[in-house]
Model the fold of this input.
Amino acid sequence: MEALQNGARGDADDEEDESARAGAEGARVCLAEVRAAAKRISAWIHRTPVLTSHALDAMAGRQLYFKAENLQKTGSFKARGACNAVFREKELNPACGGVVTHSSGNHAQAVAYAAKCAGMGCSVVVPRGTPRVKCDAIQGYGADLVFCNPTPTARQETCATIARETGWSVIHSSDNYDVMAGQGTIALELLEEVPDLDALVVATGGGGMLGGVAMTTRALSPNCQVYAVEPQGKELAESLKAQERLWPEPSTFLNTVADSIRLRAVGPLAFPVICKSVNPHVFTVTDDQMIDGMRITFERLKQVVEAASGAGVYAALNLIGEAQPQAQKIGVVLCGGNVDLDALPWITPSNTY
Amino acid sequence: MEALQNGARGDADDEEDESARAGAEGARVCLAEVRAAAKRISAWIHRTPVLTSHALDAMAGRQLYFKAENLQKTGSFKARGACNAVFREKELNPACGGVVTHSSGNHAQAVAYAAKCAGMGCSVVVPRGTPRVKCDAIQGYGADLVFCNPTPTARQETCATIARETGWSVIHSSDNYDVMAGQGTIALELLEEVPDLDALVVATGGGGMLGGVAMTTRALSPNCQVYAVEPQGKELAESLKAQERLWPEPSTFLNTVADSIRLRAVGPLAFPVICKSVNPHVFTVTDDQMIDGMRITFERLKQVVEAASGAGVYAALNLIGEAQPQAQKIGVVLCGGNVDLDALPWITPSNTY
Done:
């Protein structure tokens, strides 16, 4: 399904199969592509601020730099990758009238936003039972909603069917080189402001942001170590060690409070990029630890963030010493702020998730 | 008590009585003093960002500019006025070893912070029963806590006793010209970034911020109308109309969700400044309206703010047309972000306040 989704992008250069494409990632996800993405999306994307806090620095015993993607268009970093992929689609394939994706979360809003910016049609496949507030946000950007059964397979199949029938291109949430290049612009901006970071921690779901950010960081600032932060059960470290995707197919969802990083497996296109650029020490965090990081971010940075952002904050505050005790300047991506304000997880018992 | 508190500042120029001082406010709260305050405090205070949101602009049908004082040192704008007053105290009276104030809220943290910056001692009088978290925050800046009975009179008397015994100066939370000049720097910064505001809405408690901001705005941008937003029961409009403080003495606390603006009466030093510079149309908001504005700020701006900030947001979104239908560019001060995250008011029924 991954190959189909990417093949459906309609990019004339992308006729090769998935594994060949994965092998060619050196050419497709490189600093030049990230710089091109930054140029392509700059008018539609916020250059988000880098926040700091003396109180958090004191708690960490290090200097922390928070890239506030919760303040990004659509409320998460996903707008970067979606805009890059959708705008590039339009450049390469001007006859293509629209895009289609499946996601009930941040990527859905991001693609709907990007399509609106590009003047393209957009269909978003969401599982039946998706909360009304999420559907409203997607439709608010003018996208059509298509409901399907709530399984990963049904979502992918419905998406593929729409793409076939309409000729529209599928924009996968992470396993897409243009999406990865778009997410890489986070690191481009952060390292422009803080060029001498010792480490950068990135909460990881499908791996698109991790791949884009790690590749960019490695190119610009090779001494800065990029670490993945994962929910329990993902077991990224084992796949990194084996240099092989050990997850079962199709990928399942983890039972985690951080719904934006619940996809268990890193995608096949992102994985080789990550293997090349990410420190093999993975930080694994529990729900309670993510909630702790999330709450501290509300309290000290006064920023509304998702639990996945809390994962990064927790790791920067408490875990970085495990891997790099001497690290002084730590970057953290506050990946998004689309949170259910009626069910903040330190108020709602976490066993309801 | 107000005169005593200000007299206790130890400023050699301030021997006159309260009403004479109030009459001389033209000399003491002027643009030159605000500019001097900006210079005095700049190394210790954040220049806070001005946030915008297309979604909120669309809801308002106007352009809104949010001055994010929730991101200020100590979590509220109070750090500006406290730093200006404490640092000026030290300039004028180098022998004075410390400062004292009474407040269980944002002003207490702000004075404790300012005293720490100035290398001065600090005592804060708080009512018995003040939540532990607030006491911890004040002590976190190195201040001593002094507990007293939970009445406005007991707080003032305890404060005056400490000042008498120690020779330390009392820093009142709003009824102090140096505090007002410090708060005026909010408008200085905002109007530098958005010089052509049509209106500026300010949530109002004791009136120190309203006075400083309105005076500064009137001097810099006379076409910009400054409006007070008040909780129900304050009845500022009646006093403004009479050009006389109609509130009973001593001032009482309003029963409002917005604890940082619960002081009913505007102080005697701030009042004449406000009469001269504030539009007589006052926006009165209910608890539910403030909570609505607060929640929208979490949701759309991703900013953690207090209910008092929500009051301004609600007024800018829904009420400005009552007074100035043609206004296009509206400034809003997000006055603070020190909120009890375990009791967000849209989750906790508001009848528990």
